[in-house]
């Protein structure tokens, strides 16, 4: 919604705001959007909505999308398109007036929910699997010969078993201390309640309901001053809560504390030293299998013969997440039919959304989701467009966030730097896993755990955030057709203002359909085209609002891909082009892609013949460039680096350059290579 308000402000500041009657309409739209933004944020913070409120929210969100369509269409079409936009604005306004947000109930229930972490505190030890090693390690840290006060922090994503581990350590160790306490912290902590709970568990402290935080801190410090205590603070969400809690716990010699958290930042600030931060690891496949069999069949060595292969497939999707293993095995207890197991295996995400047995896991993952600010939730939901086990490149992801309007520039910080901050914030919250960590501890990419991805996809569907092409009734895209040519000619997604993002992951097409050039609001496009024809480039160049284009191809139909000038690709900011076969060169003509900021090219070519000529790409014509990334074969590396350095020398923005060597051998096109998902991983 913030991006829409920015667009309206931009309209008022530019020549559009000077047109007769237009300024008034724009101000009207801005007021409407501001009101809707506040209402949507209120609804977004509600973890449960009754059907009436959910229906109202969905209608309200649709209104916001409609208004955005009108704005983008107007900006793309100019003043002559305003009549259509004005009519839609009036229609949207009338629809908005029919809903009265103030009269809606705030939630579906006022009863407090049960803490989803509670079962972990009472889990029988003989039902636990894979906890022996981590438990031994934590106890060894606690038993280190030191007089100092030690704080150990256990960190990991929700459902990894942090509370269970801390609880087992607590019950094994507490008898060695004068007093002990185990307390849990909620996402919105009540500091007074937490301090009272600690006081009740450590001993006979005279506390009253009237005691404020300062009085409770003083009483606890006085009682604990001469004692060796052991306190576990479970599920700390932010550093501020930890700061208040630790005030009540003096740094007594020989005393010990354990915290659990999902945040790496909180873990580092709460632990005594970095070596006292214990990062939880997923269960090994063997331990996952033991746990699954014990829960599903009652024995680690039992499995119905006709089901012997299915558990392995399910466990790979669980990825060692204990809560996922327990949840899914509980769903399948006493289920003997292979069809039931196959159904759960093929649709784990939807099964988790529908099954009451999964409520605990959904609740735990929801804690992480609703703890995030709204802009981070949006960035996380965007990850639902990627398939399982996909390596998501950091630069590509951040640029896509920017092109979607999820990341805005702020004073003193550009959009990319802010997007990078969001990226590491998600890593810090243990919601995405860093991949390819460089010497400077910077991650080049990330992956999403399959179970977390399933949760994100369910949430994205619930929020109407993304629509899968598979959901279109008139398009047949079953999994058996993945990797085979797919036609978009007969699929036309409605009016020219309706389509904003199209990602054809897992499918390739023979040609770019003609209708695509007429879409005024298409901002993000990801295509895998068998061979790029000159007319395909022309069609793509006519998409006036296109900001982000990812194109994977075997090459150009005539050995070259030429991007002509004359105002083509006039809005494009990010262009990623990846070849998975040799024999094609790329050429940018003068005045082409005038607003392009980031160019990324991937060539498997290792010699001039494979590149169909010298690496003279016309990069010097891309006047808006600020970043160039090229990956090319060893033999062409030096020549390409020299050319790019010379080409960008006269460009006004002094682009940063990164040319990397490709270890892939020369590839000549074969149709079966299109079925290989690895070709898309080069983006």
TrEMBL record:
Residues 455-635 form the Disease resistance R13L4/SHOC-2-like LRR domain. It comes from the Eukaryota. This is Uncharacterized protein. InterPro entries: Apaf_helical (IPR042197), Disease_R_plants (IPR044974), LRR_dom_sf (IPR032675), LRR_R13L4/SHOC2-like (IPR055414), NB-ARC (IPR002182), P-loop_NTPase (IPR027417), RX-like_CC (IPR038005), Rx_N (IPR041118). Keywords: Coiled coil, Leucine-rich repeat, Nucleotide-binding, Plant defense, Repeat. The keyword Coiled coil applies. GO terms for biological process: defense response to bacterium; innate immune response-activating signaling pathway; plant-type hypersensitive response. Coiled coil: none annotated. It holds the Pfam family NB-ARC. Residues 135-297 form the NB-ARC domain. GO terms for molecular function: ADP binding. Belongs to the disease resistance NB-LRR family. Residues 1-76 form the Disease resistance N-terminal domain. SUPFAM superfamilies: L domain-like (SSF52058), P-loop containing nucleoside triphosphate hydrolases (SSF52540). It comes from Paspalum notatum var. saurae.
């Amino acid at each position: 919604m913030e991006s829409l308000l920015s667009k309206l402000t931009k309209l008022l500041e530019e020549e559009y705001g000077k047109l007769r009657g237009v300024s008034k309409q724009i101000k009207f739209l801005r007021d409407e959007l501001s009101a809707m933004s506040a209402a949507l944020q209120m609804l977004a913070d509600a973890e449960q909505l009754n059907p009436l409120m959910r229906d109202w929210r969905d209608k309200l969100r649709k209104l916001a999308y409609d208004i955005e369509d009108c704005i983008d269409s107007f900006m793309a079409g100019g003043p002559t398109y305003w009549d259509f936009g004005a009519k839609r604005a009036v229609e949207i306004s009338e629809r908005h007036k029919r809903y009265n947000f103030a009269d809606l109930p705030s939630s579906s229930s006022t009863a407090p929910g049960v803490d989803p972490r509670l079962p972990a505190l009472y889990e029988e030890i003989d039902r636990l699997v894979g906890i022996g090693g981590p438990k031994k390690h934590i106890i060894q840290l606690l038993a280190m010969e030191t007089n100092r006060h030690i704080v150990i922090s256990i960190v990991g994503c929700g459902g990894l078993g942090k509370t269970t581990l801390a609880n087992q350590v607590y019950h094994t160790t507490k008898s060695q201390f004068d007093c002990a306490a185990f307390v849990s912290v909620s996402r919105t902590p009540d500091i007074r309640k937490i301090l009272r709970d600690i006081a009740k568990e450590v001993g006979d402290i005279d506390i009253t309901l009237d005691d404020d935080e300062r009085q409770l801190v003083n009483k606890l410090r006085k009682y604990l001053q001469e004692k060796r205590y052991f306190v576990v603070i479970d599920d700390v969400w932010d550093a501020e809560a930890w700061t208040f809690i630790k005030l009540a716990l003096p740094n007594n010699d020989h005393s010990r504390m354990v915290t659990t958290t999902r945040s790496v930042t909180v873990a580092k600030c709460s632990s005594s030293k970095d070596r006292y931060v214990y990062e939880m690891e997923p269960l090994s496949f063997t331990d996952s299998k033991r746990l699954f069999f014990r829960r599903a069949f009652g024995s680690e060595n039992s499995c119905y013969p006709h089901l012997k292969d299915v558990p392995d497939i399910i466990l790979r999707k669980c990825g060692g997440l204990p809560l996922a293993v327990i949840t899914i095995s509980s769903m399948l207890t006493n289920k003997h039919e292979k069809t039931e197991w196959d159904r759960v295996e093929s649709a784990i995400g939807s099964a988790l959304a529908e099954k009451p047995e999964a409520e605990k896991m959904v609740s735990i993952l929801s804690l992480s989701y609703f703890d995030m600010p709204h802009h981070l939730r949006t960035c996380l939901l965007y990850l639902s467009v990627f398939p399982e086990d996909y390596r998501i490149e950091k630069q590509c992801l951040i640029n896509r966030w920017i092109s979607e309007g999820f990341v805005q520039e702020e004073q003193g910080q550009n959009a990319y730097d802010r997007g990078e901050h969001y990226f590491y914030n998600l890593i810090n919250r243990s919601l995405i896993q860093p991949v390819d960590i460089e010497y400077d501890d910077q991650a080049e990419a990330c992956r999403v755990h399959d179970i977390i991805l399933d949760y994100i996809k369910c949430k994205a569907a619930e929020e109407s955030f993304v629509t899968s092409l598979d959901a279109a009734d008139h398009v047949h895209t079953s999994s058996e057709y993945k990797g085979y040519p797919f036609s978009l000619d007969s699929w036309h997604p409605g009016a020219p203002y309706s389509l904003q993002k199209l990602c054809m992951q897992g499918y390739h097409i023979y040609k770019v359909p003609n209708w695509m050039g007429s879409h005024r609001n298409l901002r993000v496009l990801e295509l895998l085209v068998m061979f790029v024809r000159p007319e395909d480039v022309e069609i793509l160049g006519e998409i006036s609002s296109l900001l982000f284009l990812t194109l994977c191809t075997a090459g150009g139909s005539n050995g070259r891909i030429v991007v002509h000038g004359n105002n083509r690709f006039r809005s494009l900011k990010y262009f990623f082009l990846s070849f998975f076969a040799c024999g094609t060169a790329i050429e940018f003509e003068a005045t082409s892609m005038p607003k392009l900021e980031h160019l990324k090219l991937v060539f498997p070519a290792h010699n001039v013949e494979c590149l169909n000529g010298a690496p003279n790409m016309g990069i010097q014509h891309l006047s808006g460039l600020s970043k160039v990334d090229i990956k090319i074969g060893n033999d062409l590396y030096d020549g390409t680096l020299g050319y790019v350095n010379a080409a960008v020398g006269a460009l006004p923005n002094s682009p940063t350059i990164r040319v990397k060597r490709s270890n892939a051998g020369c590839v000549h096109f074969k149709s079966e290579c299109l079925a290989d998902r690895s070709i898309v991983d080069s983006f």
